[in-house]
Design brief:
Blueprint: H1 5-15, H2 19-28, H3 33-50, E1 58-65, E2 71-79, H4 82-86, H5 88-103, H6 109-112, H7 123-134, E3 139-147, E4 151-157, E5 163-170, H8 175-191, H9 203-219, H10 224-242, H11 257-268, E6 273-281
Antiparallel strand pairs: 1-2, 2-3, 4-5, 5-6
Helix pairs in contact: 1-2, 1-3, 2-3, 3-7, 9-10
Length: 283
């Protein structure tokens, strides 16, 4: 069967592989599209074995939000080089994986690998196809799903898709509310809070911080009778810097994120608060 440009384009749309790879696959399979897709997947699987010892530290972070705004996912997929990561093919491929995760309510990377997309291929098979196309090791590193009853999800992906965040918000969806949600997601990207509230910080982390502050105070030769006060003051600063609702708002240093939430709740006459968050950064 003759390999036409139309067949090559059709395979390219279905597989995401390059034109040359599609042409080769069709020549090897006598123009049979399903067999050509399988050929590309096998090539990708072989590539994965060949490059297993390579480090995949570049890649992309993408988010996907449901039409009703009540759920959202964020994913990180790694490749070897920034050149591949920046390409439209890899960016669209990563967005497609995020969309599949959202459509199937997936909150676990290992589970996501076995989930099928609209084309009937599993995520692992889609990844194998992309590996065969770009000739690099590609890994699904992580995925996080946030669902909010009586609220919505907002997101922000920084330019270049190397870092992003999604945030769940309790309250009625509105354009202004979503805009604030996006600004809070931007805050999460910029200021890397470890928790939404201080009550959520693990006891182990608090204990470790207290130990550090006490040691610092003694190394600074502070009197024993004020070390406890110094330690607690430093812990208070730790909470203010690392808990989202207590952080200084990056767009207005006169208020905290908590103040921002309260202002909109008062303005809208309803509840408005952060339920949870997720921040992904390459590596």
């Amino acid at each position: 069967m003759a390999v036409t440009i139309e067949l090559i384009k059709d395979l390219r749309e279905k597989s995401g592989a390059g034109m040359a790879d599609c042409k080769k696959a069709l020549e090897e399979t006598n123009g049979d599209i399903p067999k050509a897709i399988e050929y590309l997947r096998k090539k990708g699987a072989a590539m994965a074995t060949k490059r297993a010892d390579k480090i995949a530290k570049e890649g992309a972070v993408k988010s996907s939000i449901s039409d009703d705004k009540t759920k959202g996912v964020i994913v990180e997929i790694n490749c070897e080089t920034d050149f591949v990561a920046k390409g439209d093919g890899f960016q669209n491929f990563t967005q497609n994986i995020a969309n599949i995760a959202l459509a199937n309510d997936v909150n676990d990377a290992a589970h996501l690998l076995g989930v099928k997309g609209n084309d009937g291929l599993t995520v692992q098979e889609i990844i194998d196809g992309m590996m065969g196309s770009v000739g690099e090791k590609i890994e699904l590193r992580r995925v996080r799903l946030i669902k909010v009853d009586g609220g919505f999800v907002s997101s922000y992906i920084h330019f270049g898709s190397k870092v992003g965040a999604i945030v769940g918000l309790k309250g009625k969806y509105a354009d202004e509310a979503n805009e604030i949600g996006q600004k809070i997601a931007m805050q999460i990207v910029a200021m890397t809070p470890i928790n939404v509230r201080r009550e959520e910080v693990s006891a182990d982390v608090v204990e470790k911080e207290l130990e550090i502050y006490q040691t610092q105070a003694r190394n600074e030769k502070k009197p024993e009778n004020i070390i406890e006060k110094i330690t607690m003051n430093r812990l208070e600063k730790f909470f203010q810097e690392n808990c989202l609702v207590e952080q200084e708002y990056i767009q207005d240093s006169s208020k905290s994120i908590g103040d921002l939430l309260k202002e909109y709740a008062k303005k809208s006459g309803g509840e408005f608060d952060v339920t949870e968050m997720a921040r992904f950064q390459l590596g």
